[in-house]
Specification:
Beta Polymerase, domain 2; Beta Polymerase, domain 3; 604 residues; globular; DNA-binding; alpha/beta; 17 strands; five-stranded mixed β-sheet; 23 helices; seven-stranded parallel β-sheet; 4 domains; DNA polymerase, domain 1
Length: 604
DNA sequence: GCCGTTTTCGGCCCGACTGTTTTCAGTCG
């Protein structure tokens, strides 16, 4: 038996294959759709399915019910799912790789495999290519000259690895979207233009770039879009077009009359699961929703809405912020709010609520084991003024423990404190705007759970961010003990830095017992960091969501190693919002004095 | 197979585009 991978992508692929097999086998259509929905959800999850399974929370995944839950349970316990493996065996194995070729779905793939007598999974794509080149496809029923050519170019795209699986980070997606928007605004009659899809929802990783345009002259906008530099035109029509760009990314454009732009925004922002939930709910009220507006099912009359607010209002709902649109309970909360009941939509934290950044590395050389920052305190303070901050925290890595004795380290930390205080005073004398500093330190939690800062050195810091920077693969039990030991080693440990240690897109997070982590952090008043670095976005939004419900507090930090990197704060704010966090949940929305009071533990 | 403000049974979002068809099936988002 083959072993199925345990990553979200592998699991989604398994469920998608299952859906394809059911479709080929003529199974109930809705059962097929159910597997597809579950695959979609899992592919777009921002936390690992395996972590959810460990916490017995698979049911929070939209579209995962008792049957798929038990399949996943079997997968994680044994490495196999007997029912799924048996079902997949009933379909020729060559079908499955063909599904990854754009434009081929279960029906076509199966037809080709049968007609061309393709035997092996391994050679399926190259067999198909050979057949297409030999003009063996065009004569087949349901195919033709054009589809033969399309298959060849789709295989070329497939070969370049330019299919869905590699999602990009937010900054790259932002940059591509900005470029396309500027291009369209320059040469087309654009009334309004908006980035939609997962980028508008600020998901940690982005698949396609989705852009909507309000215009009275759709044809002109579409033709301008089609002249944007691209590798391949995927499709075009009167309402939009899709391009494969040279960087391998797909960009989708939709155009709409300004009078119906609100419905378009709503539709194209997604998520798919949010839209399905909303449409299903609306249907119960006799309303059918589409990108054109809201249709009374009885009369067949469609009403257009110019804004998204008006669209939601027409449904009797408050506007739902895009970051919440993941079918994670936001519709139910909106309904409760509309009925005047408690537990409505959260009042989300915004970038302008952030009063400071507590995780910044300066260029002060304290001989650390990890990297120094590149900019001086003065440069960082200047930047803080530009960001509108009231304070920053200097959180350099602790001095290397292998190269220094505890006495050395204490001496270094003492010198550092004196240096910062003096440099800060000098900077402040020259500036009217007051920006306070906190002298912190990012301290390693070593493999055995001890902190890489000797007791005597704590005198010279206002507080500590404790983080994991080594031995990421310890099993959950050992890792949990290690972190708990580190966090509770000294009362000045106030923040748990980038708690999962994940790096997007490759490094999975460490294995932790989150229930225990939440309990310990809450008991000691330790804040969880939301590290805003785009490759981290750590905590993941799903854990923010859970932690907030347990009453935990967060601090959003840039982890900047240079002044310009401080502006990634907005990505961290997005994570907080996606986790339903409000201003009261985020401690660096407090003013300097309040934060200073929080930082100072009463029990020293 | 999933799911719950007309339901724990009986429904299941909505529309666009493409190619191969004479009215539609397959794929996609």
């Amino acid at each position: 038996m083959m072993t199925i991978g345990m990553t979200n992508l592998a699991i989604a692929g398994m469920l998608r294959n299952m859906a394809a097999a059911y479709e080929i086998l003529g199974e109930n259509r809705f059962r097929t759709i159910a597997y597809e929905r579950a695959a979609d959800s899992i592919e777009h999850l921002t936390s690992e399915v395996k972590d959810l399974w460990e916490d017995d929370k698979l049911s929070v995944i939209p579209g995962v019910g008792p049957a798929i839950r038990s399949h996943l349970d079997e997968l994680f316990r044994t490495g196999h799912v007997r029912h799924i493996e048996a079902t997949l065996k009933r379909v020729p194995e060559a079908v499955f790789p063909l599904l990854l070729v754009p434009g081929l779905g279960p029906k076509k793939a199966y037809k080709l495999v049968k007609a061309l007598d393709m035997r092996t999974e391994k050679r399926a794509v190259s067999d198909l290519e050979t057949a297409a080149k030999a003009h063996a496809i065009a004569p087949l029923e349901g195919f033709g000259e054009k589809s033969e050519q399309d298959i060849l170019s789709a295989i070329a795209i497939y070969r370049k690895g330019q299919i869905k699986e590699n999602r990009m980070g937010l900054p790259q997606a932002d940059a591509i979207a900005r470029d396309i928007i500027a291009f369209l605004q320059k040469g087309a009659p654009v009334r309004e233009i908006t980035v939609l899809g997962s980028l508008r929802r600020q998901v940690a990783t982005i698949g396609d770039i989705d852009i909507a345009v309000a215009t009275g002259r759709p044809a002109d906008v579409i033709s301008r879009f089609l002249s944007y530099p691209h590798q391949k035109m995927i499709e075009k029509g009167p309402t939009g077009a899709s391009l494969l760009l040279h960087n391998g990314r797909q960009a989708d454009l939709r155009v709409q009359d300004p009078r119906a732009y609100g419905a378009m925004l709503q539709y194209f922002t997604g998520s798919k699961n949010h839209n399905i939930a909303l449409r299903t709910w609306a249907l119960g009220k006799g309303l059918s929703l589409s990108e054109y507006g809201i249709k009374q099912v009885k009369t067949g009359k469609t009403t257009a809405y110019a804004t998204e607010e008006a669209f939601y209002r027409a449904l009797g709902l408050p506007w739902i912020p895009p970051e919440l649109r993941e079918d994670r309970g936001e519709l139910e909360a909106a309904i409760r709010q509309a009925q005047g009941k408690p537990d409505g939509l959260p009042d989300l934290v915004g970038l302008s609520d952030i009063k400071g950044d507590l995780h910044i590395h300066s260029d002060y050389d304290l001989e650390p084991s990890h990297d120094l920052g590149r900019d001086s305190l003065a440069v960082l303070l200047d930047r803080a003024v530009e960001q509108g901050y009231r304070y920053i925290g200097l959180s350099d890595h602790n001095p290397s423990v292998t190269n220094h004795t505890p006495e050395d380290i204490t001496a270094i930390m003492k010198r550092r404190k004196a240096f910062y205080e003096k440099a800060h005073a000098a900077w402040q004398r020259k500036h009217t705007k007051a920006v306070g500093i906190f002298i912190l330190c990012e301290v390693d939690i070593l493999t055995d759970g001890t902190l890489a800062l000797p007791e005597s050195a704590f005198t010279y810091v206002d507080g500590v961010i404790a983080s994991i920077h080594s031995s990421f693969t310890q099993p959950e039990g050992a890792m949990t003990k290690r972190v708990v030991r580190g966090l509770t080693a000294h009362p000045k440990v106030r923040i748990f830095g980038h708690p999962t240690g994940r790096l997007l897109p490759d490094r999975e997070g460490i294995a932790l017992d989150w229930k225990e982590m939440f309990r310990v952090c809450k008991a000691r008043g330790i804040a969880l960091e939301i590290n805003a670095h785009p490759a981290r976005l750590d905590l993941p939004d799903t854990i923010v969501f859970d932690a907030r419900r347990q009453g935990l507090k967060f601090i959003i930090d840039s982890d900047a190693h240079e002044a310009t990197a401080m502006d990634v704060m907005r990505y961290g704010v997005s994570v907080a919002r996606r986790g339903w966090a409000g201003t009261h949940d985020v401690l660096n929305s407090m003013e300097y004095n309040d934060l200073a009071a929080w930082l100072t533990p009463s029990r020293i």
